[in-house]
Design goal:
Layout lengths: L2 H30 L7 H4 L1 E7 L2 E6 L1 H7 L7 H6 L12 E5 L2 E5 L10 H9 L1
Antiparallel strand pairs: 1-2, 3-4
Helix pairs in contact: 1-5
């Protein structure tokens, strides 16, 4: 191991706690930018250490699938929006709102919520 490798190891170890703290702060900030009524999406926020110098901060898709009513990771549709939805094999779409059954021939397109971009702008 060279002296430069030793120096790099010492520097990385010195800033590890700071990396972890910044990842936690960004996770909280991004979660606070989610404008969801239910809170399921926000409760699935996570941060994960990928290497000594990088972290993933975002939505845990598997956790969201387990916690959501339809067992679907809808985080990309929430963030980017979606096209109009129509039933494929049925005559109508079906879901529940406020405990009431809702049937519709189609669901309108949504524009999405740029919560990630807002969080990045505030974090800078």
């Amino acid at each position: 191991m060279s002296k430069s490798d030793d120096l790099m190891t010492v520097v990385i170890e010195a800033v590890q706690e700071e990396f972890e703290q910044k990842a936690k702060e960004f996770e909280e900030l991004m979660g606070n930018e989610i404008n969801s009524k239910e809170g399921t999406l926000k409760s699935c926020m996570t941060h994960e250490k990928l290497s000594d110098t990088s972290y993933f901060v975002g939505i845990d898709g598997d956790k969201l699938k387990r916690k959501s009513k339809n067992h679907f990771d809808y985080s990309m549709a929430y963030w980017k929006g979606r096209k109009e939805v129509r039933p494929i094999k049925a005559n109508a779409l079906h879901w529940q709102e406020n405990g009431q059954d809702v049937f519709a021939k189609k669901a309108k397109a949504t524009s999405g919520d740029p919560f990630v971009e807002r969080a990045i702008a505030k974090f800078k």
